[in-house]
Amino acid sequence: MPWGGNNLIYCGIDWAENHHDVALVDDSGQLLAKRRISDDAAGYQLLLDLLVEHGDTEDDPIPVAIETSRGLLVAVLRTGKRQVFAINPMAAARYRDRHSVSRKKSDHGDALVLANILRTDMHAHRALPNDSDLARAVAVLARAQQDAIWNRQQLSNQLRSLLREYYPAALDAFSTWTNGLCRPEARELLKVAPTSARAGRLTRTQIQAALRRSGRKRGIEAEAVRLREVFRANWAHQPPLVEDALGKQMLALLGQLDAACTAADDLAKAVEEAFPQHPDADILLSFPGLGLQLGARVLAEIGDDRQRFADARGLKAYAGSSPITRASGKKSSITRRWVKNDRLNHAGYLWAFSAITASPGAKAHYRRRRDDHGDWHAAAQRNLCNRMLGQLYHCLQQRKLFDEDTAFPVALAVAA
């Protein structure tokens, strides 16, 4: 850490959309410099020059605190060995109250608060992990694909709610298909027949043509007969003018769903291309229940910086799978964690759910938690995920693939 005279130097940056305020303090808390920079290449260079003026070197860079973990400014700061601390804005607000009781707020004051956070409590905060560029690229794609799936499901729910108001025949016709309204067959048929009245006039030839346009290859004739019978059944109808208006609303929403489905599929292909290139991919894919998409989501959240977690307990706490004990006086309770990485927690839930059927040892562990310990389904899955994360940490540290006999020796012996 650079020295300014006889003191250490710390930097705080108050991030904004068009400009950023920078403050530098020494180990005694004295303000050494403050500057406002623009959010462009010239501003970033001005910041780097300011740091160099106060002793920043390639081997001993000045640590920086900022309230975000992404963006071009953070990318510029993360080059080399520099430690960049992403401070939670709520935590920064609590620190602000230590220096002022008037509750006043300014951009320069916030930058000074962030610099003082490092000066006093740098040991209590964690620098951004030193992940490789490939791991960060996989993280971008995996998170985007997960967001696209969530957006697709939200639009599907909206479309389903709208169809219930005027077009129950469509919901009944697509109820036998997995993913229902998200399937290309359902979307193609809704484009051809946006209302119940128009669906009732469809011929088998028109339905077969729509199924072929959607990419369906098998069972087209039998499916066309079934769909025609459903569409021509006796259904309640809205007044014609109202039904036509609702049909136009449905088509607009269907266009958004089409775009969301395309985005989810394209991002899934991008993940399938990028994730296998990572050195940790083979280890992750060796675990039961982890495929390309789910494995990429796990890698996206834990990264490939082996110094990020001191031990397996740190990873488990980060995922929210390990329980937390709260004690006050004579009272104590053991509950689940609410502060966690939600994306990793969600991936862990799906991972444990899949591992139950993919691994005999995982299934035996789950049944033991349900039968012997009396856990509910979610609690038993969380306990299984906690164990699998511990095994993953060990395999990544030792560069070993998952081994069923080593992971669940007792469970397999009992099963045998």
Helix content: 55-70%
Q: What overall form do the CA principal axes indicate? A: globular
Note poorly predicted spans: none
Strand content: 5-15%
Order of helices and strands: EEEEHEHEHHHHHHHHHHHHEEHHHHH
Which class best fits the helix and strand makeup? Answer: alpha/beta
Q: Major sheet, described briefly?
A: 6 strands, mixed
Rg = 28 Å
Tally of helical runs: 19
State the distance separating the first and last CA atoms: 58 Å
On the 0-100 scale, what is the average pLDDT? 89
Number of strands: 8
Overall tally of domains? 3
Any overview of this molecule?
The protein has 416 residues and is of the alpha/beta class. The chain folds into three domains: 3-128, Ribonuclease H-like superfamily/Ribonuclease H (Nucleotidyltransferase, domain 5, 2-Layer Sandwich), CATH 3.30.420; 137-273; 281-415, no CATH class. The protein contains 19 helices and eight strands. The longest helix has 35 residues, at 240-274. The chain is globular and about 80 Å long.
